[in-house]
Write a structure and sequence with these properties.
Length: about 550
């Protein structure tokens, strides 16, 4: 609290501290206070209620917790087992068309995870294409609903996250380490096992953590393909929206998951410190190995994995033009009616564009302010931990906490809860850590003595930032924009809890269509969503590369 009081005192002398105060207030009012209030409300309701909880409730809660961790651990193991060999083949063994494979394998990043869920049903369900093909060979598949389907779905969606982290880790391995190993007679494969892999262990931990937390917070896949396999995020959501349910259950589950998230936050900080402490000095390029047999095997293996990962999206495209698809290799007939119906109601598309337009500026402004603040104010390290909390919290908990806290608040004479404003706030809070950490990485590479030089020449703090610091982090801001756009349009957990009546985004409509069994219409909406995200992210990526070239020219 002393650190915050110092900022208050400095606000008078330097206007930059006003921006600090606004960013801190946002985090306090829309993250910290709602979570504390949720915990207090849960305790009060629990202690004051005379009704007993459902029989064996806490045993059931432990069972659901076990299910959640079991799913997250299995999804992490499967994802890493796929992503690690892929990353080594791409970076180290000169597979053909490496850039193409990377581009194709990252397509799942720009799609909501639950899209993979209903694609998996089309492929592996009772009347699925793969199921029928295997039945002709005398092989019968077990039901896809439950843990098995969830692991498949989450792994299909999470492998690209792990792959990107591992690729960046492998590109930081100093060439001289491998050259030294070869000079001592160590083979290429032993070098990868004994030298390279231990070096990138922090990145392996980070990749695994990304997959684990993605699984923990997922509500879309359990909702669509989970069957009777219950996880925490789904229990909070289903009990919260149930008119016949016990209001204490989602609050108790939410408080429990906040406690678990605080423990996970400790692990997140440890992993972040590990990756930040990896030394990148003496780097003389990437060591590659020209082994024809490995290159050929690697190219075939990556091609097969790419086909496997893109198959659900091919199925979605085919299904988006189909009428009914049951017990046959293709839909009964093809039509444009699904697209006509989806486009006839432009509301979800317009709402999605509004969300992008409203949330992205908030994320970028907060990311730049907080990133700059953490760079200059070392004594605010504890606040940095607080901003990481949404990274480990399921979105449904953030949604419930905001509703509980601001249920009686009005804006412009209308209820805050039930308006689009609370949805914008919820998604902004939920996606802030990822954008912030991206921008923080940009600030980490800046020598602040340049700012000091500008100040010594008479520039004010804000002018020094705009003219000296911001041009250097501009490429990173565009990269953060790309990540933010993807995360905003694929956000489902918080949106399911908090969206205003009659105001639904494309992601919510897809979930609605799937729940109602309108898979072809859901597929059409999914294809449109992928196209919109692809166009927006391509533009942001183009701007990012343009700014990077300008910056490199300036440095030269």
């Amino acid at each position: 609290m002393k650190s915050l009081s110092k900022i208050y005192n400095k606000m008078i002398s330097s206007p930059v501290y006003i921006f600090y105060a606004v960013a801190i207030a946002f985090v306090l009012f829309f993250l910290f206070i709602p979570l504390v209030n949720l915990i207090i409300d849960s305790l009060n309701i629990f202690l004051q209620s005379t009704r007993p909880l459902p029989e064996n409730f806490f045993r059931y809660m432990m069972k659901v917790t076990f299910n959640t961790f079991q799913l997250a651990i299995l999804s992490t193991i499967v994802s890493l087992c796929i992503a690690i060999p892929l990353s080594f083949l791409i970076v180290k063994f000169k597979v053909k068309y490496a850039a193409l494979w990377i581009g194709l394998l990252t397509i799942p990043l720009i799609t909501p995870g639950f899209i993979s869920s209903f694609a998996t049903i089309i492929l592996l369900g009772k009347s699925g294409v793969v199921t029928m093909a295997l039945e002709k060979l005398g092989i019968s598949l077990p039901s896809i609903y439950g843990l098995r389907g969830l692991v498949i779905t989450q792994s299909l969606h999470a492998v690209p996250y792990a792959l990107i982290v591992l690729l960046s880790g492998l590109r930081t391995v100093p060439r001289y380490l491998e050259e030294a190993a070869h000079s001592m007679g160590t083979s290429a494969f032993k070098t990868q096992i004994n030298i390279v892999f231990p070096y990138i262990i922090p990145h392996v931990f980070m990749a695994g953590l990304m997959v684990f937390l993605t699984s923990m917070g997922d509500v879309g896949a359990p909702l669509i393909i989970g069957g009777s396999y219950k996880v925490i995020s789904l229990e909070i959501y289903s009990n919260f929206i149930s008119f016949m349910g016990d209001e204490r259950i989602p609050l108790i589950f939410s408080t429990w998951v906040i406690f678990l998230s605080c423990i996970l936050l400790f692990a997140v900080n440890k992993v972040l410190n590990l990756t930040n402490n990896v030394k990148h000095r003496f780097r003389l390029g990437i060591m590659e190995y020209d082994i024809p047999k490995v290159r050929r095997f690697g190219t075939v293996f990556i091609a097969l994995m790419t086909i496997l990962f893109l198959l659900p999206y091919v199925v979605i495209i085919i299904n988006s033009f189909g009428t009914i698809w049951t017990y046959d290799w293709l839909p009964n007939s093809f039509t444009l009616a699904n697209y006509a119906k989806v486009l006839s109601d432009f509301g979800p598309i317009f709402n999605t564009i509004i969300l992008i337009s409203a949330v992205i500026p908030i994320l970028l402004i907060l990311g730049v302010i907080l990133g700059y603040m953490f760079k200059n104010e070392r004594n605010l390290k504890f606040f940095s931990y607080l901003t990481l909390l949404p990274f480990v919290l399921p979105g449904v908990v953030i949604g419930v906490s905001l509703i509980q806290t601001y249920a009686d608040v009005q804006i412009f004479g209308k209820d805050f809860v039930g308006s689009v404003f609370i949805l914008i706030i919820a998604i902004s809070v939920r996606r802030l850590p990822i954008v912030l950490k991206t921008i923080e990485a940009g600030f980490a590479k800046i020598d602040m003595s340049q700012k000091e030089a500008a100040l010594s020449l008479g520039a004010g703090e804000i002018k020094a930032f705009i003219s000296v610091i911001f041009p250097q982090i501009k490429p990173v801001v565009y990269s953060a924009m790309i990540i933010g756009i993807v995360k905003v349009v694929t956000e489902l957990a918080a949106s399911l809890i908090i969206y205003p009546p009659g105001w639904q985004s494309m992601s919510l409509y897809i979930a609605y269509y799937v729940e109602e069994g309108m898979i072809s219409r859901a597929s059409a909406m999914g294809v449109l969503l992928i196209i919109i995200v692809g166009i927006v992210t391509a533009y942001a990526n183009h701007k990012s590369k343009k700014e990077m070239l300008k910056y490199e020219t300036y440095i030269d």
